[in-house]
Amino acid sequence: MISDLNEKIGKVNKIVCNLPFGKQFNPNVNFFNFYSKLLKSWHNILLSGGEMILLTTQKQALCKASKEANFSIKKISQIDVQGLKAGIFKLQLNDCS
Predict the structure, then answer these.
(1) CATH class of 8-93
(2) DSSP bridge pairs for 15
């Protein structure tokens, strides 16, 4: 749970996640809002320069949420996930100093 992350503030250097997306998830969800909340929570626990590797089909929502949460994003590769075109993305926490 996100509330359990308070103990980890500034202590994590890497996160790897298969983000919820597409048919396996609620098709009516606003992915930008969902990813924004998730990335803001992860922003708090990552060390400066921390990185994430994320899998999703929701490229636009992830890119917009990443920018809002102060992450730089780089697409690593595209893969097929049960017939859906998904991207593997590397996000890095931007240094605010």
Answers:
(1) alpha beta
(2) 52
Q: Which amino acid is at 70?
A: N
Quick one: how far is CA 94 from the chain centroid?
14
- DSSP states along 40-73: HHHHHHEEEEEEEEEEES-HHHHHHHHHHTTEEE
Q: What is the pTM of this model?
A: 0.80
Q: Do 13 and 53 meet the contact criterion of CB atoms below 8 Å apart? A: no
What are the b/e assignments for 32-64, b being 16+ CB within 10 Å?
A: bebbbebbeebbebbeeebbbebbbbbbebbbe
pLDDT (tens digit per residue) in 24-63: 666 678 889 999 999 988 888 888 888 999 999 888 999 9
